[in-house]
Amino acid sequence: MSRFSVQEPFLAAVVTGVALSRAGLPGAVVHLERALALFDSLGLHDDPLYLECAIFVTLTLIRPHEARLKYAGYVDRLSFDPVARARLLAMIGLGDAWAGNLVRGQAEMLEARDLALQAGRPDVQAEVTSWLIKCEALRGDLSSSAAHLAEARTLAARNGSAWVAGHIVEGSATLHFAQGDTEAWVAMLELMVAGGMGVDSGLTFEYRWELATHHALHGSLSTAARLLDGVPPAPVFLPGGPAMAAWRSWIEAPDDEQRMHEFESVLPELTRPAERLPRARMAWLLGAHHGRRGRRAPAVRLLEAACAGYAAIGAGGMLALTEADLLGVTGGRPSYTPPPPLASKPGEAALTGAEIRVAVAVADGLSNREAAERLFVSVKTVEFHLGNIFRKLDVRNRTELARRRDTL
Questions:
Q1: What is d(CA 60, CA 231) in angstroms, rounded to the nearest whole number?
Q2: Is pLDDT larger for residue 319 or for residue 397?
Q3: For residue 143, with 0-12 CB atoms within 10 Å meaning exposed, 13-18 middle and 19 or more buried, which class applies?
Q4: Which range has the worst mean pLDDT, 276-280, 328-332, 341-345?
Q5: Closest by Cα among 207, 127, 219 to 174
Q6: CA-CA distances (angstroms) from residue 300 to 134, 246, 247, 303, 332?
Q7: What does the pLDDT average to over 338-360?
Q8: Count of beta carbons in the 10 Å neighbourhood of residue 222
Q9: Which one is predicted more confidently, 67 or 381?
Q10: Looking at the predicted structure, is the pLDDT value of residue 344 above 60?
């Protein structure tokens, strides 16, 4: 390591920082920050390996919102082979999704998956696809999520990847939840808690707290207590960390209105991009329980806040479930029926969610650059999806696509 540190100071800092971080040991942040400083000072942005390591370090520091800001320009401007570009796009897309930009993240990861597929790299395809499972489940694209779950499992088995297998488990749990299969979701939580999953995303505590909440709300306070017994407080730097102590206090006495109020009062402290999703989830949990106890005003307040939070980040799957609880409290009925999906020509797969969004933007008369700005993706991403759209719909140009605007 001493020789390696002299020859490759950037990579040595990356390896040391990531290893310390995964082991939960002190000093990790110092090495990770040093790695990012070296990346800039040594001008390593034109090498795909160094660029991938820099993005990985940024994600390890739980600053996913910085991935696009700092590195997307390099990926767009530099010429990389398809496999390197696929990995880099996927990691930036993962950062987008984690930071609460699910629409943009999904589009980037879909492009990365297609690049890996075209390059004949099932290992990269497996990794990217395993990330898509959770993103699409959160988005409400359940059929795509289920298809990518099956695909990722097959590819992971072919390549023998424990790394991908772990992401598949986490994605599968989210899909079960989005499908409304609570029993399967609880089983997956038990598996993840027992295996200590969630270290990479800082969700180790959140998974345990979710499982304990489920048992507490279903009358098994002793099981909830066992899950929390001896577990140290969640560090405040993790996503949702500032609210974890109040959440834990509520789990111990779920019908205590004062504890519910204290939990709600700390939610405004969750202001980081990576906390947009957990903040909406915590508001949903509290609002739904107020509703079950007949406390209509706080239930509506919190469930509306959760719906707004999910809508803001593009989490349509979670929004639909939360709205169902809200409608149960208000007695209302949804007034909007989504249109049927756009039909593709015989023999072609249906348009993906990302392709539908590009098709709508272009059919609205936007240029590729304008569509990219609306969807928060690169112009290259729009061009890539537009080629697939023309082929799948058997249209020759933008004018023909615009004529089909009402069916998009």
A1: 22
A2: 319
A3: exposed
A4: 341-345
A5: 207
A6: 28, 21, 20, 5, 12
A7: 67
A8: 10
A9: 67
A10: no
Mean pLDDT over each residue of the chain, to the nearest integer:
90
Phi/psi for 99 (5° steps) reads: -85, 5
Are the C-beta atoms of 401 and 362 separated by less than 8 Å?
Answer: yes
Q: Residue 403 burial by CB count (10 A; 0-12/13-18/19+): exposed, middle or buried? A: exposed
State both tokens at 8.
């490759």
Tokens 């402290």: give the residue. Answer: 269
Kindly state the tokens that stand for 294.
Answer: 């007949």
Q: Tokens in use for 374?
A: 């609306």
CA triple 186-191-192, angle to 5 deg: 95
d(CA 74, CA 33): 20
Angle between helices 276-292 and 204-217 (to 10 degrees): 10
Neighbouring residues of 301: CB distance < 8 A, sequence distance ≥ 6: 287
- Residue 343 banded pLDDT, cuts 50, 70, 90: low
What whole-number distance in Å separates Cα of residue 60 and Cα of residue 52? 12
Q: How many residues does the chain have?
A: 408
pLDDT digits (tens, 9 = 90+) for 159-192: 888 889 999 999 999 999 999 999 999 999 999 9
C-alpha to C-alpha distance for 386 and 354, rounded to whole angstroms = 10
Q: CA-to-CA distance for 175 and 128, rounded, in angstroms?
A: 16
- Written in H, E and C, the secondary structure of the chain is CHHHHHHCHHHHHHHHHHHHHHHCCCCHHHHHHHHHHHHHHCCCCCCHHHHHHHHHHHHHCCCCHHHHHHHHHHHHHCCCCHHHHHHHHHHHHHHHHHCCCHHHHHHHHHHHHHHHHHCCCHHHHHHHHHHHHHHHHHHCCHHHHHHHHHHHHHHHHHHCCHHHHHHHHHHHHHHHHHCCCHHHHHHHHHHHHHHCCCCCCCCHHHHHHHHHHHHHHCCCHHHHHHHHCCCCCCCCCCCCHHHHHHHHHHHHCCCCHHHHHHHHHHHHHCCCHHHHHHHHHHHHHHHHHHHHCCCHHHHHHHHHHHHHHHHHHCCHHHHHHHHHHHHHHHCCCCCCCCCCCCCCCCCCCCCCHHHHHHHHHHHCCCCHHHHHHHHCCCHHHHHHHHHHHHHHHCCCCHHHHHHCHHHC
